[in-house]
Specification:
globular, Multidrug-efflux Transporter Regulator, Chain: A, Domain 2, alpha+beta, 61 residues, 16% strand
Length: 61
Amino acid sequence: MTGEVMNVDELAIYLKMKKPTIYKHVEQERLPHFRVGGSLRFRKNTIDKWIEEQEKCSVRS
């Protein structure tokens, strides 16, 4: 499902990251997100694109 939406717990599992790290990235505007009723949400296809961009940046470094 391309429009799948994840919450912080699901994203932490998907990215294999700790939740505090996700909150830190959100606070620093480094991770694409949106809010629904004050709760953070992440669109899977947007996160996948973000991952690809991160890979490209690390290859250039």
